[in-house]
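Sequence in, structure out. Go.
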Amino acid sequence: MKKIVGAVLAASLLAGSAFAADLSFDYTGSGIFGSTTKKVNAVERTDCFALNLQTDIAGVHVDWDIEDEKLALDELYGWLTFGLPVGNLQITSGKWNSRYADRVNTDAGDLGGDYFDAHKLGNIIDNTISLDADNLTEGAMSSVLAYTLADALPGTLMTKVGFVSTADNDAKATKTSYHTVTTNPKTPLFCGFVGEVAYKQEGLANIDLAIKHLTENQTSAGFYVSPLVSETLEATAGFTYGYNTADVTEVAGDLRARLTITEKVALTGMFNYSQVSIKDVDDPYKAMWGMLSVNYTAAENIRFLATLGNTVTDFDAEYGACITNFTPACEIKGSEKVTVTTAVDLRWDNSAAKGIKPFAGTCDISIPVYVHVAL
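Output:
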């Protein structure tokens, strides 16, 4: 019962003002044909359902998945907004993901993930402290209080504080490609603490600072800036820091940009450099990821996308240790409510071999297909 109290409270409020509520339903079905993470010539199928009910002051969101014929709750949360003499206050409770910074993934559509932005904004590549640093709640049970002040400033100021359950955060060692810290740095707390401060001013910039302390011995912070000075440029630059008391320090720099070249053509590029330093280890672990994607809108209901990505997982490998993918895709809108996306993913993975031998990796070809219905 504890897990749905926040959502139930918000639902009760919505029920009293149902005449003003907006109800929406989303379905995304995906099938990945060919060589998958499970076996060759397999089909990985996932069905995702999302239900959203909201008014001007409150709302409820439910998101659940069916994967491997098993039903799993992805998100369940509710929110309630209070008007104040100056600004407003919003409380959100439940199981959810709280992100703020611009991930510059406008062209991803339903693909995302491995096929577009393989590493989330604020990731330390191949590590465990700073994964998705801009995501305050990380899909866990949480309660977050947000205060927004807009009218008294040239822009909008937002601050968040909250508590996140760490009951499912099992203690484990921090791992990289070739270092392992066995001092058990992920000791769960009763609950973790999160905080965020953001300021957005049109024509200037959107600035965000997110801090998370979700386990007893680990802290991460992310600082992200998005300039708002051009209608044709969407960009975010960021710095991520992670630390634990096992003397592991992580840093990463992110740079993402999308440039609208013409009405039909847009170019997106992303870059991440990560470094992990461990006490008494002279050589820090270094990794790098980059991607380039071209989007072409052929008509109102059809567009084409081609994405090239590469992750270098070991700078010291003689022949290079990397994961490279090339993914051309096509998105067709059958109507305003139905979208079908299909792609061909060509992937070369040499990371497991750590570059010891040339051409020692594996090559995979898969065909992801997505059907998205929004009602």
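Check: The chain has a mean pLDDT of 85. The two ends are 30 Å apart (CA to CA).
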